[in-house]
C-alpha cells in the first residue's frame, strides 16, 4: 500500500506510471483517503501505517492526487468501474490546497523511483532514472514538536534484493536506455520496438480471464455417467404410506 511519488508533481506522477500501477493507485489512494478522514472510525488500526501517517492533516492534497490518477485513467481509455472523482476538491489543483512539507524532498522521491525501477524495469528504465532498483521506502514521520518531519525506514525493516536480481535489473535498465538513445538518434519517434510491441492488456481487464480447459479423461477411466443412485428424498417428503425398506 503506497501513494507513488517518483516526482513531487501529482499530474506528472500520473503520466509516468504504467497502467498496472496507475490502476492500483486509484484503489490505494482512495483507501488511504478514507483512513485519513476517519481517524477514530473502523480505520483506526491503520493510523500508524506509514502510508497513512504521511497524509494525516493533508486530506485535500491526497484527494487532488487521487483525482489526478482518475483523470489519467480516463485519458488512457479506461472506465471508472470501481471509483469516481472526489468532489470535495472539484476544480482544484495541487497549487490550491495545503501540501505537506516532505513533498519535494528528493530523498523520499528517490526511494519511489528505485521501487518503480524494481517493479517494472522495462517501463521505468526508459525514463533515465539512475537509482538502484530496490524497494526500500522512507516514510515521513512528524517530529515530536509537531512542526517538522523526518524520513524513516519502516519499523519492520527494509526489503532485500539479491545481487543477481539487482545485476539483471541494471542490465535491463541500461539496455532500455540504449534503445531510447538509438531511437532519438534515428528519429524514430514511435519509441523503441514500438512496431513489434503487442497491445498491452490491463491487468484488471476481463480479457485477461481465461476459462480452465477441461481435462481429458485418463486412460482406464470411464467417460460414461455414473450409475443412477436411489433417491428417497421425494418419498420422504411426500409422506409414504408404508415403511421404506433400505
Write the layout of secondary structure elements.
Layout: H1 10-16, H2 19-37, H3 50-53, H4 59-75, H5 106-119, H6 121-124, E1 139-142, E2 149-152, H7 163-186, H8 233-238
- Percent strand: under 5%
Sheet with most strands: strand arrangement: 1-2
Which class best fits the helix and strand makeup?
mainly alpha
- What is the N-to-C succession of helices and strands? HHHHHHEEHH
Share in helix: 25-40%
Q: Tell the overall outline.
A: globular
Largest sheet: 2 strands, antiparallel
If you compute it from the alpha carbons, what radius of gyration comes out, rounded to the nearest whole angstrom?
27 Å
Instruction: Please provide the count of β strands.
Output: 2
The stretches of 5 or more residues where confidence is low (pLDDT under 50) are 189-197, 232-242
Keywords:
246 residues, mainly alpha, 2 domains, two-stranded antiparallel sheet, 8 helices
Structure overview:
By secondary structure, the chain is mainly alpha-helical. The protein folds into 2 domains: 1-100, no CATH class; 105-191, no CATH class. Helix content is 39%, strand content 3%. It has 8 helices and 2 strands; from the N terminus they run ααααααββαα. It has a two-stranded antiparallel ribbon. A hairpin with a 6-residue loop joins strand 1 (139-142) and strand 2 (149-152). The model is unreliable at 189-197 and 232-242 (pLDDT under 50).
In short:
With 246 residues, the chain is mainly alpha-helical. The chain has helices spanning 10-16, 19-37, 50-53, 59-75, 106-119, 121-124, 163-186, 233-238, and strands at 139-142, 149-152.
